[in-house]
Amino acid sequence: IESAKAWYHRGEVYLGIFGSEEYASLADDPLGVALESYVRSIELDTKNDFSDDSKRKVLSAQANIYNRGVESYMAKDFAKALKDFELLLVYQPEDTSILFNAALAAEKLEDNKKAAKYFNALLDADYKKPAIYQTSAHMAKDEKDTAKALVYLSDGRKEFPNEVGLVIDELNIYLL
Fold first, then answer.
1. Rounded distance between C-alpha atoms, residue 90 and residue 160, angstroms
2. Overall pTM surpassing 0.85 (yes/no)
């Protein structure tokens, strides 16, 4: 369908399903479908008939999905949390708070490949925190790649020369 109006109204229907206890079972992820619909409406709305409304609803849906992801993470449902954060990354691939949460959820799921991808994206985005280097090094060490772990720690020490945790982790690798 190439109609901004149709996509907008699809978003309205799914947003209504999301907000209704009675009809919530009609869709697996009505909030995700609503988000997708509003985004598509914006893309197709050459006359700007629905764009302002759709943009507001996109922001609202994203905030709700983010909060749902955080709640899932806090409830230790890391798979559900990761699913929500990855949905948001489709629309906001460079948002560091979403990347960070996706990395943490993937790490908790012991999906080191995904976690490393998100941690590396954070480093590429200049979101440099000592914990990112340490966690990346720990994951590399878990994968039996001590050379890669040492690279993360060395890079971290260049960024944070006074961070004792990085020094201790590096020393522990050499001592073992």
1. 31
2. yes
